[in-house]
Design a protein that fits this description.
The chain has 385 residues and is of the alpha+beta class. The chain folds into two domains: 81-157, no CATH class; 172-384, Orthogonal Bundle (MetI-like fold). It is built from 15 helices and four strands. The chain has helices at 19-26, 29-38, 41-58, 60-63, 169-205, 207-221, 225-234, 242-257, 259-272, 276-283, 288-296, 301-324, 336-343, 346-349, 357-379, and strands spanning 84-87, 95-107, 114-137, 141-150. Helix 13 crosses helix 15 (357-379).
């Protein structure tokens, strides 16, 4: 007669943890945040979109069909072309191969305005990794290959149309993405460096130091951001070069944007400075800098990263608004705000609505950063883990 062993009950009355629960209890905070972030589908898709944007920024000379100084005065405000894989209307019948229809132009006898229409009889061959204008990839590697472009450099291939100056809107959009996104990212990094350092010093030391830093923050926050940006940008000399203006505008945006983070970091440090791990670090002889930035700051680094991603859209919108008003970046520099200057003229926009494409890019990128920031903020919520 076989004897069945009785089930062994947990002496504490607690059921043993399953494999998934045990894996979760052993996971690090970073792993828990990543698992929670993956469940936020919209944030995950936005993260992939931003990753693609970063690739475009890094390889913009290769991705853009033409250089940033390319102009074709023969085709000004020409409409976008449709990329086709085959052709059935050509003189040779059915044909395979990437191509676009060329242009045919007409001039209005009254307004003398030239309009362009696609011409199926004029086939413009398009290729991948084609030879085009020379450039230096990463400023180091000489190259003349472009991701996409006309096989004959003199043929018109303008997938997003052209601007009022005859520039390829797609190429200009690629270069503008690098400038506008880098202003936002670099500006936020500078602002976060100031906010973290000053907020940490204010909350950790307290007393006179805390009062001095908080009064400076209140002074800056008492001035409305938009008039302050406009005033500082208007003080720049009009003959300033594009590179110098780029760095000055980035600095102006950063010097105004650090106050919110500084207050948040100060509050965190005020709550953490009496914790046991901070006291242990002091008794162990750690320096103030090590305690602040090696022990206290990493305890809420996930929230800092979430706040970082949520601050970038505001910085991008600020640069776009300043450049659109003519007080930020100016031609020959190219940014989303500079591109939208043409779209602000109704006489131009009524005949060339594709000039609003940079505005659509601004909306998509800002929404993507917001979705990623929301996903990171929810994933970093300690009450969820």
């Amino acid at each position: 007669m076989s004897m069945k062993s009785a089930p062994v009950n947990d002496p504490e009355g607690v059921a043993p943890a399953t494999g998934g629960e045990e894996r979760r209890t052993r996971a690090s905070q970073r792993t828990l945040v990543w698992w929670a972030f993956k469940k936020h589908r919209l944030a995950l898709v936005s993260a992939w979109l931003l990753a693609g944007m970063l690739i475009v920024i890094a390889l913009c000379e290769f991705v853009a069909p033409f250089g940033d100084r390319h102009r074709d005065s023969e085709y000004t405000t020409a409409p976008p072309q449709v990329l086709k894989l085959w052709d059935t209307d050509g003189p040779d019948g059915f044909q395979w191969g990437l191509h676009v229809d060329g242009y045919t132009s007409e001039q209005d006898p009254r307004s003398l305005r030239i309009t362009y229409e696609p011409d199926p009889a004029d086939r413009v061959e398009v290729g991948l990794f084609v030879k085009g204008e020379e450039y230096e990839l990463f400023g180091l590697i000489p190259m003349d290959r472009h991701l996409i472009g006309p096989k004959d450099m003199d043929d018109p291939m303008y997938l997003f149309g052209t601007t009022t100056d005859g520039q390829d809107l797609l190429s200009q959009l690629v270069y503008a993405t690098r400038v506008s996104a880098s202003v936002g990212i670099i500006g936020v990094l500078v602002a976060f460096l100031l906010g973290i350092v000053l907020g940490a010093v204010s909350g950790y030391f307290g007393g006179v130091t805390d009062n001095a830093v908080q009064r400076v923050i209140e002074l800056i926050m008492s001035v409305p951001s938009i008039p302050l940006w406009l005033g500082l940008a208007a003080a720049l000399p009009p003959d300033m070069g594009p590179v110098a203006r780029y760095f000055i505008i980035t600095t102006i945006l950063a010097l105004v944007a650090w106050t919110g983070l500084a207050r948040e970091v100060r509050g965190r440090f005020l709550a953490l400075r009496s914790e046991e791990f901070v006291t242990s670090a002091r008794l162990d002889g750690s320096s103030h800098g090590r305690i602040m930035f090696r022990h206290m700051l990493p305890s809420f680094s996930s929230h800092v990263i979430a706040a970082l991603s949520l601050s970038i859209p505001g910085m991008i919108l600020a640069e776009t608004a300043l450049s659109w008003l003519g007080m930020g970046l100016r031609a020959p520099a190219v940014s989303w705000g500079v591109q939208l200057q043409d779209a602000s003229k109704w006489s131009v926009l009524s005949g060339a609505p594709w000039l609003l494409i940079p505005g659509l890019c601004v909306v998509l990128v800002v929404l993507a950063f917001n979705f990623v920031g929301d996903g990171l903020r929810d994933a970093a919520d300690p009450y969820k883990h």
